[in-house]
Each structure stands twice: as structure tokens, then as C-alpha cells.
Amino acid sequence: MQVQRFCLSAALLGAIALFPIITAAEEVRDNEERAHGDEAATYQWVDTYEFPAAKIVQYDLAVLSHFSYMVFSGGECLVVDPGRDIETYVRAAEKENAKIIGVWLTHSHADFVAGHIEFARRLEVPLHISHVANAGYEHIALKENDTLTVGDAVIRLLETPGHTPDSMCGILASAADPQRPLALLTGDTLFVGSVGRPDLLGEGMAASTLASMMFDTWTKKLAALPDDVLVMPAHG
Fold it and tell me: What are phi and psi of 184, to 5 degrees?
């Protein structure tokens, strides 16, 4: 499967430890902190990817190495894995004269606070997440081969457990040619050159169990997709 080159971005800002023996502040700044300025804490546009019947806009929150997406088609927009501050997405939709019709979470995120609840409160849009998540907020529960329609595009959902039991990936296609996959929104299941860790859940499910699920996810589902499908993960 072809993987897209993404610029490397920081995961987390390291804590700065101050000791009397250290006289230069720069010595206690880790490499990640030195790599970014204040803009690392704001959503930065990365690129816009054009497909038949749709385009995907990618944002990066460098301080968390978090990628989020807006799928635009036919005057509508679906927001995927948004961060807590939703203003960037709202302004982008306004600029495109597009209506935000919903939010899709690829899985239950534990490494950042998502903005789905804020979207629901402010715009009264539906929230979509896997039925396995048993989410405690009002949502539409997704299952294998369910679809999300955005204008003239369609996203077909795959249950892809491994990183978490509720992980899902979405295959973007034109509604006029739904059998031709164009892009794969992978959440934390598949990264550029790696897969999501199976050892972070810690809620009664062994890492070995999730690793087995990840193996099946790759061999039985993702590896079967065409090589030219563009991989769009939730982290850099």
C-alpha cells in the first residue's frame, strides 16, 4: 500500500526540569521543544487532497502530533477526529460555504481531548463512533460496512481493532464509483510506516489479544486494499 510522506511532528512537549547545576536554560529544553514555536499549540493546515467528488483537508496539532481531517463534498463537510478547539474547523467550513453534517471518531481517544461534544452542543450535529465503544454520549453507533455520505462522496467503515477494540477505518470513494477506494482514514490503526500500539489500553484486555486483532486487521482487511490508496492517519 502506498504511504504518503508526512513531515515529522512532535508528540508531546517534555517537562522542563530545573536544577541548580544547570546554568543555561537551553540545556534543559528537549529536542521536541526546540523543534517548535508557539504555533505548535495551534491547528496548522498541512495540505488539501483532491479526489473525484471530494477533497480532504488535513490539520496538524504539532504539540500532540495529532492529525485531524475535514472531508468536503457537495457543500457538506464531515469532521474526522477533531481536537478540542473547534474554531479552526468551523471557520474552514464557513470559508468553503459548506455545512458541517457530522463528526466521526475513528476510535476512543486517550491521548488528547476530542472536540466532538463541543460540535454536538454548538452545531447540533450527529456524532459517529463504533458500536464497540459503548459511548456514554448521544451518538450513532457504527458497524462493519456502514457508510457515511458526504455530498457526492461515501465513506465505508471497516471494523479494525488492534490499537483499541473500537478502532475503525474509513474508505473514501465517490458515490458514483463506490468500488474504487481513493483514501483510507485510519485513525490510530495504521500510520505511515507503522501500526498503532496494542499495549496502551490497560482496561482488562491483554496487549497480546489486541496484537492478535491488529494482525487480523492488517492481513484480512487493510493489506487487501489497492496499493494506490492514500493513507491518512490520526498521528504523525
Answer: -125, 110
Measured distance CA(232)–CA(170) in Å, rounded: 10
CB atoms within 10 A of CB 107: 25
Q: What is the pLDDT of residues 69-120, one digit of tens each?
A: 999 999 999 999 999 899 999 999 999 999 999 999 998 977 667 889 999 9
Q: Which of 119, 118, 117 is nearest to 137 (CA)?
A: 117
**Please, are residues 114 and 104 in contact by the beta-carbon 8 Å criterion?**
no
Interatomic CA distance for residues 198 and 214, integer angstroms: 8
Sign of the torsion angle spanned by Cα atoms 165, 133, 83, 217: positive
Q: Which runs of consecutive H residues, i.e. helices, occur in 14-57?
A: 31-34
Phi/psi of residue 31, nearest 5 degrees: -65, -35
Q: How many CB atoms lie under 10 A from the CB of residue 132? A: 18
pTM: 0.82
Distance CA 211, CA 202 (A): 13
Helix then strand then coil, in percent of the chain rounded to 5, is 20, 35, 45
